[in-house]
Amino acid sequence: MNEPLLSVRDLSVVYEPRGGDPVPAVTGATFELQQGDFVGLVGESGSGKSTLGFALTGLSKPPARVSAGSILFNGVDIAGLSLADLRVQRHGGFAMVLQSGMNALNPVRSIRNHFYDIFAAHGHVSRADREERAKVLVGKVELPSSVLDRFAGELSGGMRQRVSIALALSLEPKLMIFDEPTTALDVLVQHAVMNTIRELQAAEKFTAVLISHDLGMVLEVTERVMVMHEGLIVEDNTAAAILAAPQHPYTQMLLSHYGDPRAEVVEVPGLAVRGTARNVSSRVASREGRAAREAIVVSGVSKVYPPPRRGEKPVQAVSNVSFTLEPGASMALVGASGSGKSTIAKMITGVERPTSGTIRFGDLQVDTIKRRSLKRLHTEVQMVFQDPYAALNPLHTVEYILMRPILNFSQRRGQDARRRMLELLDTVGLTPVEQFAARLPHQLSGGQRQRVVIARALASDPQVIIADEPVSMLDVSLRAGLLALLDSLRETWGVSMLYITHDLLSARLVTDQIMVLNHGAVVEEGATASVLRNPQDDYTIRLLEAIPHPQTDR
Amino acid sequence: MTPSTPDPQGTHAVMVRRKQADVAPATSALRVVWRAVATIWSVPKARVGVALLGFFVLLAVFAPLIAPYDPSDNSFGRSEDFSAAHWMGTTAAGQDVLSQIIHGASTSVFVGFVAGLLSTIIAVTIGLTWGYLRNITGDVINFVVNLFLVIPALPLMIVIAAYLQNGGIGMIIFVVVITGWAWGARVLRSQTQSLRSRDFVTAAVFSGDGPARIVFREILPNMTSLIVGSFFGAATAAILAEAGLEFLGLGDSTTISWGTMLFWAQNSNALLTGQWILLFAPGLCISLLATSLSLINFGVDGLSNPRLREGANR
Predict the structure, then answer these.
(1) Helix, strand and coil in chain B, % to nearest 5
(2) CB burial of residue B135 (10 Å; 0-12, 13-18, 19+)
């Protein structure tokens, strides 16, 4: 082997916030990258993977500081370089593509100008060749050269991310760092962009580091994987070796959370086995007590939004969707972003009104509901939100947050209401309850926050829970626990659940019925297991293929 | 006016909170106030402002004890120069200038705080309602606020003040509040609109809370720093407006305040007689008081925008 392109020795990075104690983010990272390597860097949130990525490209900003170790890139220590030297290094050196790279484009300059700016700054492309070079670069990321004339606002998220990859490529970097390049994109687009990155890397032979929280995707794409946990690189091996025999317990745990929704039996830790033979009717019959009594009947519902700009066509968000959510049933609403699944949730909860069609819940006519009856609807139909960081007011204690629905929807007052609040906390597994009741949201982890959100949804003793991507913002290792909680609550409390997601694996795990939406229309529906095992519609098949399958690919 | 922070509770704030996940367990209201004061104090500019403001407030509160003479006692010699008995000389009417300056502080501080508070209360009530409502009421408020924003404030103040004729301090506060609330309302409205679409507000609707509770218990606490900032801005504007109106002779010219001192100094041609201190001292006090409030506002920015705190030492 010749000289490594990048050699990192004993690298440590600390965060030194003003007026706070220093927090080590990366400790003693040591590894080498050869020219042409494609390496994945995997870890959950807070594992230090992005901090490491920033340090590698010399982008560490206060309060982060490289406290020890060296980063030798082509024999030069980056950690000690001045800003001006670093800027020169960026040509033919290293580049980074960020998670929000698609938002890094200047909205008032055309894409062509973005390329020209870089060419002008580094002067490595002569004025006459610029047009040609820019065309070649956008061609590399599979975009037509016509995008050069357009502005960031006119491109989709996937196209913008491709443009930012092309911009990073324009300096012919030897090392490219992709920091969650597809996380903010839609599932199908994610898959396509990832393929582009993989092909580019193979064709251009640059060294690439792919930072991601998704072990499955990284295993599928890269040759070598480093797993980070709490600032330490706990495992560094080839993808095949990690897949076959993960050494570190943390890696084993991460791997165990992947499954194929198409398999006959799907199982992840903490969740009951979901085979094909699940008898729905018998489970409904066995319910007692608070069980859901009324069905939500959606028939022929459409929603058209007025055109976003003058002269454009109105947006058809949902077209002619009909379904019935039986009492006690659990149904998945699946589709890529923009497929209308959240709009349906909004219409069922009375937040939006359908343009045509009817929605009934018991004796409530939801599509024409008055403000006064909205409160009655919300006693019975509750919502679990996607983002636990946004769904809790940062200034209220858990006790306040949970007491509101109890006081508003039930006759309980004083000690009785408080007892109920503590009961709810106990139900969602936040014990000791008194301690959690006194906490503010920022003193809770993401998973704990989402449990509070679930407890709040249960507070009014609803018949129906609408869960809008309840686990998509959480780390993989937390997802199973929350899904198991939702599933068992549904069974013991007897509520019906509409589970909205783009993640087919979780849909397989917690639902019995499934509906696949594409551009606002239902393309496929039926029992979850049979639909996912034998998909008929082309769109469903594409959704299934977009899921990384480390096991089946190798 | 107020240097507004675009997104005080933005994602960055959330991330920083996440990092503090295991700090002190209980957070009482007193503690929050204490932390706010500590944050303001940690900004050097704001520290100067707090010290200056503290000086003027002490002057205002203890004026009768500190001032050597009764400010309206005109038994001294007229237009006297500096002397051991009268450090700043006497006015054309034979009053002690130093005593007037000290007593004038209480008028300015009083008007500043009361008018600032009242216009902030109006701005908060209107701004939040306006921002939260999406119906016809919102449009009506929109019209009224725009009306107040397009009319130039000083002429409007002069017209109202002239119409109310020598109403004293109460009148001045009224005029300042009437002309001063619209900007704050506009700023708070846009912040309310951005908070309105947050998940936790939707969640409160699902919890069965009514609009009033959502606005004042869920949204309002999340823009404390903006409100505090708008209060200091309004107070500054009120102090300047009060001095301006009195200088123009639109207030009650028998009250003792920095504005009326300027008015009388101008009337008695103090500059021509060489008594520059009569114009200089009240003018300096007005600008120092206004400056102290503006300086404090630098610290308020840091209250809910941690980014400003982190970047401060770069």
Answers:
(1) 70, 0, 25
(2) exposed
Contact criterion met (CB < 8 Å) for A442 and B313: no
Helix extents (H) in B27-167: 29-42, 44-61, 63-66, 97-132, 136-150, 153-164
Q: How confident is the model at residue A47 (pLDDT cuts 50, 70, 90)?
A: confident
Reported as half-sphere exposure (CB side, CA atoms, 13 A), residue A309 has a value of 1
A208 touches chain B (CB under 8 A): no
A458 contacts A494 by C-beta, under 8 angstroms: no
A–B CB contacts, 8 A cutoff, strictly below: 93
ipTM higher than 0.90?
no
Q: Which CATH architecture has domain B93-311?
A: Orthogonal Bundle (1.10)
Residue spans per domain, chain B? 93-311
- Assess contact for A428 and A485: CB atoms under 8 A: yes
Closest Cα in chain B to A20: B20
For residue range A490-522, list pLDDT tens digits in order.
Answer: 888 888 999 998 888 888 888 899 999 988 899
Between positions 8 and 47 of B, the ones with CB within 8 A of A are 9, 14, 16-23, 25-27, 42
Nearest to A299 by CA among A358, A211, A341, A364: A358
Determine whether the interchain pair B208/A23 forms a contact, defined as Cβ–Cβ distance below 8 Å: no
pLDDT tens track for A252-278: 888 888 777 777 777 676 665 554 434
Residue with tokens 């725009």: B146
Percent of chain A exceeding pLDDT 90 equals 14
| Backbone dihedral angles phi then psi of residue B174, each to the nearest 5 degrees | -60, -50
Rounded distance, CA A46 to CA B10, Å? 19
Nearest CB neighbour to A408, from listed B20, B209, B221: B209
CB A420, CB A427: distance < 8 Å: no
Q: Coil, helix or strand for A382?
A: strand
B222–A393 CB contact, under 8 Å: yes
CB-CB contact of A185 with A161 (8 Å): yes
CB proximity B307 to A under 8 Å: no
Among candidates A15, A386, A440 on the partner chain, residue whose Cβ is nearest the Cβ of B27:
A440
Q: What is the pLDDT of residues A360-373, one digit of tens each?
A: 988 888 888 887 88
How many other CB atoms are found less than 10 A from the CB of residue B220? 17
Q: Closest CB to A62: pick one of B26, B203, B310.
A: B310
Per the CB < 8 A criterion, the answer to whether B1 and B183 are in contact is yes
Separation of alpha carbons B166 and B155, rounded Å? 17
> Are the beta carbons of A476 and A441 closer than 8 angstroms?
no
Q: Which site among B17, B27, B206, B213 would you substitute to test the A interface, given the most A Cβ atoms closer than 10 Å to its Cβ? A: B206
CB contact under 8 A, B203 and A385: yes
Q: Hey, where are the domains in chain A?
A: 294-388+464-547
For the domain A294-388+464-547, what is the CATH code? 3.40.50.300
Calculate mean pLDDT across residues A48-54: 85
